[in-house]
Each structure stands twice: as C-alpha cells, then as structure tokens.
Amino acid sequence: MVAVEKKDAVVKEENKETTLLSINDLHVWFELRRFGFGRAGNVKAVDGVTFDIHHGEAIAVVGESGCGKSSLMKTILGLYKPTKGDIVFDGKNLKDLDVQGMHWYHARVGYIQQDPYGALPPFMNVKRILEEPLIVGGVKSKEERARRINTALEEVKLSPVEDFLPKFPHMLSGGQQQRVVIARAMIMEPKFLVADEPVSMLDASVRVEILRLLRGLQERHNLSVIYITHDLSTVSYFAARIFVMYAGNLVEKAKVRQVIDNPLHPYTVALLTGTSEPDARNAESFKEIPPGEPPSLVNPPPGCRFHPRCSKMIDGLCNVEEPIDFEPEPGHLVACWLYK
Amino acid sequence: MAQNKLLRIEDMVLHFNTTHGTVQAVDGVNFELDYNRAVVVLGESGCGKSSLAKAILRLLPRNAGTYSGHVYLNDKDIMTLDEEEFRQNVRWAAISMVPQAAMNALNPVIRVGDQVAEPAMVHLGINKAEAFGLVRKMFQHVGVPEDFITRYPFELSGGMRQRVAIAMALVTSPVLIILDEPTSALDVLTQANIFNVLKRIKKELGASFILITHDIATSSELADDVAVMYAGQIVEMSDAHSFFAMPLHPYSKKLMASVPRLHGDKEPEFIVGRPPSLIDLPKGCRFADRCPSRFEKCVQDPPVIEKDGRKVKCWLYS
Q1: Which among A229, A226, A250, A182 has a CA at the least distance from the CA of A89?
Q2: CATH superfamily of A2-239
Q3: Which residues on chain B are in Cβ contact (under 8 Å) with A261?
Q4: pTM higher than 0.90 for the full model?
Q5: Which residue of A has its CA nearest to B238?
Q6: Which among A203, A234, A277 has the least Cβ separation from residue B214?
Q7: All residues at 6 or more sequence positions from A153 whose CB lies less than 8 Å from its CB, including other chains
Q8: ipTM of the complex
Q9: CATH superfamily of B7-94+174-317
Q10: What is the pLDDT of residues A249-260, one digit of tens each?
Q11: Which one of B39, B148, B221 would you mutate to disrupt binding with A, by most A Cβ within 10 Å of its Cβ?
C-alpha cells in the first residue's frame, strides 16, 4: 500500500492543479426481478455520466427527485458498484481498490446527509459521534482524538465545545445537528466532500448560515465538493460549475453564471422558470412549466429523454436519436439537438 | 369595525400546557382576510404558524391550555359555536385545511377517489355517485387525470398526492382553505405546478387562502397580503406589493435579506441568534435580542402601529 502511494505521489504532483475525481461513462443500473429470480429489466438510475472535478473545486448537481442524482452520489461514495464505467480518485480506479484501499478512499471523502436528525444516531452523544470515525480510522491516541474533535467542532462554530460534547442529537436544533453532521464529515480531514441537499430540511435563515459555513470550509481546506440539490437559487453562492441532471443523464454542464444567465437546455430553462424570486408580481401570472413528470428509468423514452415534455421537440430527430454533447459557447456543454 | 370581511380574527390566544411550563404558541393574534384573497403567514419554525391554523380550525391537541379570542367568519363568531355545530358548519364545510406533509397523510389502504369523496358525502349529505361526480370535477381543477380515482396513494407521485390532498380540501367548496407548507417537500417544477393550480382555483372558484410557509420566495406566487409571525405574534401585516418591495419590521427585513436569489450578486444574510423559547418569553419586544436597530424603548412591548395602511408592531414607527 505504501509503495503504491509513493508511486502515485509522482502522478499527483503532475495533476496538482487538475483533476481529483474523474468519472467516465458511469452507468448504475439496478436489476428488477420478477418473482424473485426472473429478470424484468433494469432501472437505469445513472446512464452514461462523464465529468471531472478539480482540486479545490465545488460543483453542483441539480435535478429533480428520481433523476438519479442520489444514485450517482452513492456510487461516488463507493456504496454502490458501477454497472459500467470508471470512477478515478486521485489516480486510483475505485474498481481496483481492495478492502484496505476502500478504507483509504473513505477516509478522504466526507459525506453530508440531507436529513441531519436521521443521519445522527440518537443514542450517541456528540463526542461519541465524532470519535467513532477516528477510532475506525485508526487514531489510537486519546489526546489526539480529543484534539481533533475540538478542532472539528470549532470549525463548524459549535462553541464552547465542552457544552456540546455531552449532548445528544435530540437536544440540538436543526441547524446545530447539521453542524455536527458537517463536523463528522470533516473529522478525517478529507479532500473531497459530497453534500446531499445539506440545507433542504432547514429554515430559510439557518440555510444561509450553513451554506456560508460550507463555503468557508471549502475555501480554507481547498476541498473539492459535490453539492447535490434541486434548488438552483442556492447554487450560485456555493459552486463554480453546475451539472443539470435529467433521467440519468447530465444534460447541461457549465459555469454557474453561464447556466443562470444563459440556460441552453429546455429542461434547464424550465428549472429556472420554476424557481421563484420574492416578488409580488409573481401572483399575477401563471408559470410556463413543461407538462408531465420525469420518465420511468426502466423504459426511458427513446432519443432525448426530455422530448415528451419539450415544446421545442424536433420530430424525427429528438424522438429517435440520443443527443450528444454540443458546445455552443466555450466551456458550456449541452446535450440537446437544438444546438447541433 | 370594518364590515364585509370573510375572516376577522381578534386577540386569538392558544397556549399549550407542558411539563416545562406554558407554551404560548399563539399569543394575541389579530388579522383580517377579504373575500377571494390569499394571505401568507411567514415565519421561522417554532413561531406558532401551524398553531394559528389549528386555533382557527379548533383542531386542538389534548394539552391545549388557554384558548380564547374571536374568529368572525362572515361576521359570525365561530368561537361561540359548540363542538357539534362547529364540526357540521365550519370545519371542512366552510374552512378546510391541507395539513403539513399532506401527501403522506393519505390513507394507504383506501383508493384516493374514496378518500376525496368522503368529506363531500359527510358534509354535503350526497350519495356516493354524486360525490364521485364532484371528485372528478375537483381532479380536473387540480390537474389529476380522472382515471387516478381508483388508484391507491402509493401508485401516485409526490406531486400527484399533494394535488389529491388539495382536491380533498376543495371538494366541499369551502370559502377558506388553509394550506400548511403545501410545497416544502416537493421538487421545483412540481412546486411551480402546484402554485399554478392554486392560482387557478383562486381565480375560478373564488376561494380565499391562508398560506403558511417559511419559504418567502415561493410564497410570493400566491400572496395578496403578507403576515409575518414571530414568537406567537404577528409583527407585520401588509399587502404583498409593499411588503416584497420594502418590508417594515426589522425581522421582516432580515427574513427578506436571507432569501438566496438567482440573479444579482447580493449575498444572502442570516439572522443571528434563535427565536425565543415560547415558554419563557422576553418582556418587551420579543425580537429585541436579535434586532440590529433596537433602542431604549424596546424593553416595553411595542404597540401595533399603522403606517400607510400597513400594520407593524415596532417602536421604530411610532
């Protein structure tokens, strides 16, 4: 293991300013069974996703529930095995890692769950919650563990630390619980964070506090972050690039400002239309929202998966052939035939 | 007193008894609502928004303590009705409610058509066939395909279940519908769709709405009036246009500043501190501890001050 790491250190030097995590043609399919063993097709939760994340970069994956963003995230975390395709972290392909290798990987990836109360064990106090990953991660010295717990709690601004250590999750407010979840994700000093809707369960005012905290951590530790959300309005405060996901595919990939000021894919346009800004004039008009709902991932529509809901559908093309990525402006990729 | 209001609430108080003391969830709320208008009740969690809805509908948990005040519906005080009269003539007949997380409140073992028909049969005294006719009409209003009538809740998506819950609240043609966080668990596009449905219902059926939410941005989709609630009291009451353009109360200003926006570079702010415990409320202005513009006077309870037709409970405007 040590030898492998040394060899990789050389590779890492070369990639320093470039890629930390690279995902190539990732497919995650779940088999549907009939009567226990008969095959009834596959749920194609992630179906051909490719992207890179650089060192210290925050990206956002935006999409509705059921578009496969959680499956994508869980595969990146190593909880699901990819059906096809590669996930390469820091020069290592997850496929090739053994149990020890996965331990090495998990220590470098932090995970922030959506529902903080559900994510914290109710029978453990804050100290034990934070100590456990350190014990599992092999930090033997008690003093060292206490020091790391202190630092982590201070970083998420739960101070005075001594007041919080003996508390159980139910004694904390929603915002404080989410801070504990973040402290737990940070305790192994990861390089990479996966945040799954970290603020969707919180009050509006607390939401901003937590987003700022996350951004502060990201900048201070030069973390790479995948921020998964369905709320476009919070994205621009956090991420540099947005990937828009629809029915298992990434349909648009670009810088945040490009997506918000100049959305290209009809689905992205719909998402932006659907996002409200506080303005009394909103009440006077109806919003133009595409009809229908996201398609079944077992039998996605042929061609572009958005075509049954799309008002700009080109007959004979969109409903036949799957669109490839086009680049109508530099760095702005969109999988839509309108831009061929 | 102004006449011809659909709903007028005067000095509504609802306290709960707990082992730790009395929770003053709703503490002297006054407001009015006109015909065919929507009022949004905004506030952080734990400020008493949902309790206010329960107080209006007299849906009290067992530990309810003080429960007093007047609720005039069409100038008739419904607080004086006895329980049976209230059940027959008010609850679900005149005022209905879509509770929080309504989409998960449907009975999993009863077809959605039967569930929507039930209140119509109970309150309108019609038979099942007539009720199903109404159900079909309501499904059309909320945009649920008619053949969903025979489906079970688990066969519908979240957005569709939410629409069914709204249909259930509409089926008795109430004059007022209380919506408690109707879209907070839904996706962006579904949210926008539900608000389109609510706007259409308001236009076509002439119903009034009380919309309870903490999501300021989406609340503007339906609001004619805005009431901001803090620690059991309404601190600002204003029409939506002036409110979203310029909130008056320091708390409302802070709330507005905390909304993340798509366009523009202004950073959202957060409100320092937490709302006070409803058991041990501070004397004087309840927001004073977190207020950036507090001054000597704030140790006394501020009066409700009228300013350009808006009401604000703050010493700054006296």
Answers
A1: A226
A2: P-loop containing nucleotide triphosphate hydrolases (3.40.50.300)
A3: 263
A4: no
A5: A280
A6: A203
A7: A126, A130, A159, A161, A164, A165, A183
A8: 0.85
A9: P-loop containing nucleotide triphosphate hydrolases (3.40.50.300)
A10: 999 999 999 999
A11: B221
